[in-house]
Structures are given as structure tokens and as C-alpha cells.
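Trying the structure run again after the queue cleared.
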Amino acid sequence: MKIDSTNWKILQCLQQNARMSNAEIGRKVGITSPAVAERIRKMEDANILTGYRAEVSHWHVGHQMKAIITVRAFMGRLKPFLEKVSDFPEVLNCYRITGNENIIMEVVLFDQFHLEEFIDKLITYGETKTHIVLSTVVENAPIRTKRI
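Done. C-alpha cells:
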């Protein structure tokens, strides 16, 4: 599917506010509400738009700590880790990466004791490095570029 400038404008609107009405998007983009709905449907069908979600403040639901943890898996422990990681409720995002470490994760935790317990679970799979997040500089930035 071709992403023209109108589709890019629609994507920008939805990334800013996924609950924005088709009528409001149409006003911003310069097309009718039914045309917006049709374009959104086509982008969903083409898996360009893959979902809509609510963003929840980890802080306000009791998780007072966010951390980035890397794992360098022990020989034979990467596959078991990959099968288990989605079961860990602390994990927000997990990526398999290149370099010395195999995995990088973003996690939320209640406190330092929770962090210690979580690391204890992880060390059965490999060597870990933990980085405590002090503040967020950029989060959930919209995709703003297109290939020309």
C-alpha cells in the first residue's frame, strides 16, 4: 500500500491521539470523515496500523522504578529465556539484539526489593546489567519520516 502525504497526516493525528474522531482528523487533513475512515481501514488491512492502546502511568499504579536490563544468555539458556520472558509481568518491552548481550528489556518494578527479586529470576538465564531510569527524555515518539 502506498503511504501518500494524506495518509502520513492521518498517521500523525492518530499517533498524537488514537481517540481522535474521523471528523476531527478530516478537518486537520482536509478530507471528509468517510474518506478518513476508508483510509484508516485500508492502513489497518495492510498492517500499517497495528493497534490502538491506552498508555498507563507506571508511577500512578504503584511501580516506582523503571529499569533497562540487558541479558547475556548462558550457553543453551537463550531459547528457554525467550519462551519464558512474556510471562514476566515486569517486562514492558523485550528485544533480541546484536552485540555482547542477547536481550534488552524495559521493566517496571515496585521498588528496589522487587528489582532484586526480578534479577534473581533472570540470573538463571545469563549475566545481567541493570540501568535504573532516572527520567524519560523521549517516550513513544511518533514515526515522523517516510521513505522518499
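The beta strands are 65-73, 91-96, 103-109, 126-132. Worth checking whether this holds up in the mutant runs.
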